[in-house]
Amino acid sequence: MKSIENELGKLDENLNRMIAAENPILYSAAEQLFNAGGKRIRPAIIFLVSKIINKNNEISTEQKRLAEITEIIHTASLVHDDVVDHCDTRRGIDAVHTIFNNKVAILAGDFLFAQSSWYLANLNNLSVVKTISKIITDFAEGEVKQGMKSFDRQISVEEYIDKSFYKTASLIACSCKATTILSNHEKDIQNDFYLYGKHLGLAFQIIDDILDITGISKDLGKPSGLDLKNGNLTAPLILALNEKSELKKMINQEFQFKHDITKAIHTIKQTNAIQKSKDIAEEHMQLSIQILRERYIYKYSTELLSINQNILDRIN
After folding, report:
1. How many CA atoms lie within 13 A of 15 on its CB side?
2. End-to-end CA, the chain
3. Which pairs from 100-109 meet CB under 8 Å and 24+ separation?
4. DSSP 8-state class, residue 89
5. What is the rounded CA–CA span in Å between residue 72 and residue 35?
6. What digits encode the pLDDT tens for the residues 192-215?
7. Any bridge partners for residue 89, and if so which?
8. Per-position b or e across 51-75, b if 16+ CB within 10 A of its CB
């Protein structure tokens, strides 16, 4: 994505400046995750959406700040997720709570949410504040939904999709919408890019969950099989339950035996559940792509579509 290389480079510089804190432990904890890198997919999407909808394909100062705010919110959610999910590594390095402790990690996540809220308020756009604030509410609701369904083999695919929206897709959908609000675009364009982000986010999460079964840790940014271990039942497992009754027994026992996770993954791979999960992911991805291809055929939509394709290529 050569057209936004400069913006992405500047983003990293600004993130370090934005999370500056007087307390060295808070700063160190927050800095730890930023130093772990990441693909910066969410800011890249905001930059490219900006180029598509703005005159002269420019990215406004406010849209650049929105991209930074979105990445801080995403990072804050990862710090909290790692504590809740007992995930000890993130992108190949020790998670914040393993270097410090759970209390410091939670406080570091709260600090990042607070910083993002401060910068969000300084955009002086009430509609954007309302739109982005919903993301943080959705994160919390998604975690509660996930916790309530822990090791619950009665969970439906629809409930799983609903939870995936709150935990992942809401961030992309709302940040895409907020990008259009900052350019004073009408409701139909706001809605188009909200739906673009929603379906892209759902596809992204389903693909991530497929990789938890089929992938390796370095591709995931976290240990594989972690969802099963934590009782987070995802599409591949839900869809395999009707074919393999032994999975129900392992879920009831909460994968308590040493080789249960390995056995469960092997059992899921014997079914067509992974292919069915891929089909669902591809369906959402096509809905996302269709919005761009039908209404926004510009130079920078090609680069935005390449993000969709790169996400899809992770399972192909």
Report:
1. 28
2. 21
3. 100/25, 100/29, 104/25, 104/26, 104/29, 105/29, 105/79, 105/80, 106/79, 106/80, 107/26, 107/29, 108/26, 108/29, 108/30, 108/79, 109/76, 109/77, 109/79, 109/80, 109/83
4. E
5. 13
6. 999 999 999 999 999 999 999 987
7. 94
8. bbbbeeeebeebbbbbbbbbbbbbb
CA distances from 72 to 24, 47, 193 (A): 18, 16, 21
Nearest to 175 by CA among 137, 136, 140, 131: 131
Instruction: Find the helix or strand (DSSP H, E) in which 195 lies.
Output: helix 187-214
pLDDT tens by residue, 232-269: 999 999 999 989 999 999 999 999 887 999 999 999 99
**Nearest residue to 8 via CA among 38, 52, 53, 31:** 38
Instruction: Specify the pLDDT at position 50.
Output: 96
Structure confidence at residue 295 (pLDDT): 84
CA dihedral (92, 85, 201, 274) positive or negative: positive
What is the dihedral angle through the alpha carbons of 8, 14, 16, 19, rounded to the nearest 10 degrees?
-120
Say which amino acid occupies 216: I
User: What would the two tokens of residue 7 be?
Assistant: 């913006």
Sign of CA dihedral 214, 217, 218, 219: positive
Helix, strand, or coil here: 93?
A: strand
Q: Which residue ranges form the domains of the chain, and what is each CATH number?
A: 2-313 (1.10.600.10)
The tens digit of pLDDT for each residue in 24-59 reads 777 776 666 666 666 789 999 999 999 999 988 899
- Alpha-carbon gap, residue 266 to 262, rounded angstroms: 6
List residues bridging with 94 in a β-sheet: 89
265, burial (CB in 10 Å: exposed 0-12, middle 13-18, buried 19+)? middle
What's at 159, amino acid-wise?
Answer: E
Q: What is the pTM of this model?
A: 0.91
Alpha-carbon distance values, 94 to 35, 36, 257 (Å): 11, 9, 26
pLDDT averaged over the chain? 89
